[in-house]
Amino acid sequence: MIQPLQYISQAPKTGTHIDAIEQVLQAGGKWIQLRIKNQAESEILPFAKAAQALCETYGAKLIINDYPQLAKAVNSYGVHLGLQDMPILEARKIIGKHQIIGGTANTFEHIQQRVAEGADYIGLGPFRFTRTKENLSPIVGLEGYQKLMEKVRQAGISTPIIAIGGIETADIPAILETGIYGIAISAALTNQTQTAAVLEEINSKFSIHSI
């Protein structure tokens, strides 16, 4: 099952991606994407191994950003690919059928492309400008999600779509109202001194929406 709340890792002000991931796992996070940019696969591998071990300890699922070979090497739950990364069909040949593949989209055409490629879920964004990502695609914004999700409904697309990019806790109710499947959070859960409380507040937004 694709979790509706996903944490995208970033290094905290003090510590590493692994420190940030462990803090979210201790707070109850169940879906972690390890996203380390601008480093060689060999440098990311130790982080991927550590993140996978932590996710197994806490009963969570790990997604590796960008690198199918790393996802295969550590036997993560899956891999997430950006629009400029390896095509999904090529990545599928590497990781096989038992790991999932997520793909980024910025437009309805991208969503159709990801569905045609066989993505297991789609990361749609960015919601707003974020400093955690270089070469940012055009901002989607709330109005953009409303229009895109209406097209998704009309097209009968059932692939889970996750909103991503600069999303804060207060944004969640309005985004969920668009009919989107889930939300990815990064900065809003990193560098928190009360991670469990923040995660509880975020989860409450989902609970209220589902009532």
Automatic annotation (TrEMBL):
Pfam families: TMP-TENI. This is Thiamine-phosphate synthase. Condenses 4-methyl-5-(beta-hydroxyethyl)thiazole monophosphate (THZ-P) and 2-methyl-4-amino-5-hydroxymethyl pyrimidine pyrophosphate (HMP-PP) to form thiamine monophosphate (TMP). Belongs to the thiamine-phosphate synthase family. Binds 1 Mg(2+) ion per subunit. Its EC number is 2.5.1.3. 2-[(2R,5Z)-2-carboxy-4-methylthiazol-5(2H)-ylidene]ethyl phosphate binds at T130, R131, T132, G166. One of its GO terms (molecular function) is thiamine-phosphate diphosphorylase activity.
